[in-house]
Amino acid sequence: MWKLKPPLDTPLSLKYKHILEQRIPIDPATLINLKRLSAEEEFPNLSRSCTNMAKVLTLQMYKRLRVKATKSGFTLDDIIQPGVDNPDNLSGRAAGCVAGDEESYDVFREFFDPLIELCHPGYQQIKMHRSDMNPENFKGGADFDEQYVLSCRICTGRNVEDYSFPPHCSRGERRALEKLAIQALIELSSEFNGTYYSLNTLGEEEQKRLTSAGILHEDPLSPLMVSSGMARDWPDARGVWHNNDKNFIVWVNKEDHLRIISMQQGGNMTQVFQRYCFGLKKLEEIYRKKRHPFIFKYYLGYVLTCPSELGTGLRASVHLKLDHISKHQKFSEILQRLRLERHFIGDTHTSAEKNIYSICNSDTIGFTEVELLQMVVDGIKLLITMDKCIEQGAVVDDLIPAQK
Ligand SMILES: Nc1ncnc2c1ncn2[C@@H]1O[C@H](COP(=O)(O)OP(=O)(O)OP(=O)(O)O)[C@@H](O)[C@H]1O
């Protein structure tokens, strides 16, 4: 397994095991004792890494931070491992690192603050995170022309107080979180009738059915999940719940304790957002009543495993067909000005041939949920207008938005 924790039978690691299990504050001197080699000798080779982690981490910072750990024992080396193993940065936003628990963002703030700023320029000016999950505050319609838009999806993550995050949680923590999620989802079922499927016991037929409904993916274990430690013990204590209409989905113990998804075919983003807000607020209330609230910090918003998803965690994406504007030489620049980004679709080859794109918001922090959705909807509508104009032989340069 990737996590190079010392073997448990040596005196040195017994000391480490004690630290992990007792959850006592870690004495930096203890960690220094565990580091037999110098920072220069241990510093990772980042020459191929295009991630934001590699842009932020210097040897001096590594020297200062490598002897620190959170109370549950998450270290800087654990944080940066995904970016060391996966040097590519396909989205431009790739953090190349993960948090192992809520405290990671405090103990390693010297590293995380500039990193979040790179992922989300302007983050350091944010005084207080704002949330707005009232669909009535959305201006204008959020319904798209279905000749262009094939499907809409909104996704976010949530982590529960007092438990380590998936890269770091123990088997027992993960199982306790699954138990809690199953109880909460049963309560949610009074609003949304649904079923939980444990990956441990999932049959082949069910697996096929969930995959064809876009709920399970062919290969759930990305290299990022493996190198961050999120894939440890897979599929133990992992599962997915969906409502009877298969348009509200909750993943348990994947990248975050919970990943919440509202999605449907066609262009009705209004319904997708209404369901997202209603279901997520309900789930949050259930967890709060069980005295296991979601982790929220005034300056980070909802605290998630991946620092590029802090704030709302919201990713609103649309699969749409753009035959013309996608060939414009400034297509990438237009997306950037609209604060949107392109994600790759599972079957990249076929979707590229058919000019089908997956476009979503690039920000998650600094804006409310309603504001982010507004950006996505207004941006997608503009792209569709531009596509239509080009098809009719018009020049669209004066429609290109100014840099926001
Ligand atoms: N609008 C959409 N309609 C249908 N499927 C979608 C849509 N947007 C994304 N998906 C699918 O959801 C999966 C995850 O998409 P993507 O990687 O872009 O999102 P993410 O936010 O990075 O990850 P996740 O939402 O799983 O946490 C992919 O299989 C993708 O094809």
UniProtKB/TrEMBL annotation:
<feature type="binding site">
    <location>
        <begin position="315"/>
        <end position="319"/>
    </location>
    <ligand>
        <name>ATP</name>
    </ligand>
</feature>
<dbReference type="InterPro" id="IPR014746">
    <property type="entry name" value="Gln_synth/guanido_kin_cat_dom"/>
</dbReference>
<feature type="domain" description="Phosphagen kinase N-terminal">
    <location>
        <begin position="35"/>
        <end position="121"/>
    </location>
</feature>
<dbReference type="InterPro" id="IPR022413">
    <property type="entry name" value="ATP-guanido_PTrfase_N"/>
</dbReference>
<dbReference type="GO" id="GO:0004111">
    <property type="term" value="F:creatine kinase activity"/>
</dbReference>
<feature type="domain" description="Phosphagen kinase C-terminal">
    <location>
        <begin position="148"/>
        <end position="390"/>
    </location>
</feature>
<dbReference type="Pfam" id="PF02807">
    <property type="entry name" value="ATP-gua_PtransN"/>
</dbReference>
<feature type="binding site">
    <location>
        <begin position="151"/>
        <end position="155"/>
    </location>
    <ligand>
        <name>ATP</name>
    </ligand>
</feature>
<dbReference type="InterPro" id="IPR036802">
    <property type="entry name" value="ATP-guanido_PTrfase_N_sf"/>
</dbReference>
<keyword id="KW-0808">Transferase</keyword>
<dbReference type="InterPro" id="IPR022414">
    <property type="entry name" value="ATP-guanido_PTrfase_cat"/>
</dbReference>
<dbReference type="GO" id="GO:0005524">
    <property type="term" value="F:ATP binding"/>
</dbReference>
<dbReference type="InterPro" id="IPR000749">
    <property type="entry name" value="ATP-guanido_PTrfase"/>
</dbReference>
<dbReference type="GO" id="GO:0046314">
    <property type="term" value="P:phosphocreatine biosynthetic process"/>
</dbReference>
<feature type="binding site">
    <location>
        <begin position="343"/>
        <end position="348"/>
    </location>
    <ligand>
        <name>ATP</name>
    </ligand>
</feature>
<keyword id="KW-0418">Kinase</keyword>
<dbReference type="Pfam" id="PF00217">
    <property type="entry name" value="ATP-gua_Ptrans"/>
</dbReference>
<dbReference type="GO" id="GO:0005615">
    <property type="term" value="C:extracellular space"/>
</dbReference>
<protein>
    <recommendedName>
        <fullName>creatine kinase</fullName>
        <ecNumber>2.7.3.2</ecNumber>
    </recommendedName>
</protein>
<keyword id="KW-0547">Nucleotide-binding</keyword>
<keyword id="KW-0067">ATP-binding</keyword>
<feature type="binding site">
    <location>
        <position position="259"/>
    </location>
    <ligand>
        <name>ATP</name>
    </ligand>
</feature>
<comment type="similarity">
    <text>Belongs to the ATP:guanido phosphotransferase family.</text>
</comment>
